[in-house]
Design goal:
The protein is mainly α. Helix 7 runs antiparallel to helix 8. The longest helix has 28 residues. The radius of gyration is 23 Å and the shape is flat. The N and C termini lie far apart (67 Å). 27% of the residues are buried. Keywords: Coiled coil. Pfam families: RPN7 (PF10602).
Length: 209
């Protein structure tokens, strides 16, 4: 066989290198961070909490309707963690099949988000990594897992963010605090948001944390 006929080694495909990038997160992420968690559900939760208090104006029929609305919203959004919370809090009998179904959907969605994050970290830029992290935080917020949502936002906060993105996240965490009646969390992030807004208005480059 002539030397020229010898098989040439296959060309090595260069690995994609992560490039630093800057820009805005997607409108979808921004919209969800501006509207989640569902404050209608929070209001219903509040009413049910105070159903038996002296100040409550909720009658038996209204309480039953509120419970039904809570369960419908929980199921529509696959809120397995929040379902466990309200069943324990109000001593509602839990539907094991429903909880398992919602938990399975949560696990499947989380696996997809982890794949997205891994791809962004290996092949894409900073803004894509931030989007992937915020998507995980958004998912935890949507399903009513307060602690995991806050932890996911903390991890996202370690990545480069514009001041507008920091404001958006701070406002979202205020919503989480209101949703769970965590006034300390609300107060902390009102202060943070106020600082971020002041920086944005002043035209300063940035502010830590």
């Amino acid at each position: 066989m002539a030397a020229g006929d010898a098989k040439k080694p296959a060309a090595k495909v260069p690995a994609l290198k992560k490039q630093a990038s800057s820009g805005n997160i997607s409108e979808e992420i921004e919209d969800d961070l501006s509207t989640l968690p569902n404050m209608k559900l929070s209001q219903l939760h509040f009413l049910l909490r105070h159903e038996h208090s002296g100040a409550s104006t909720l009658g038996a029929a209204e309480a039953a309707a509120a419970k039904q609305q809570v369960l419908e919203l929980v199921q529509q959004n696959d809120m397995a963690p929040f379902y466990r919370l309200v069943c324990a809090e109000f001593q509602w009998p839990a539907d094991a099949a429903l909880e398992a179904q919602m938990s399975a959907k949560n696990a499947q969605e989380l696996a997809q988000l982890d794949e997205r994050l891994a791809d962004a970290e290996q092949n894409l830029g900073d803004i894509e990594v931030l989007e992937a992290l915020l998507a995980k935080a958004r998912m935890y917020s949507r399903v009513g897992d307060k602690e995991k949502a806050l932890e996911a936002f903390r991890v996202a906060g370690e990545k480069p963010q514009s001041i507008n993105q920091k404001i958006l996240v701070a406002l979202h965490i205020i919503r989480i605090g209101l949703f769970f009646s965590d006034l300390e969390l609300v107060e902390t992030y009102i202060k943070k948001a106020t600082t971020y807004v002041a920086v944005a208005l002043s035209g300063a480059v940035d502010v830590a944390g």
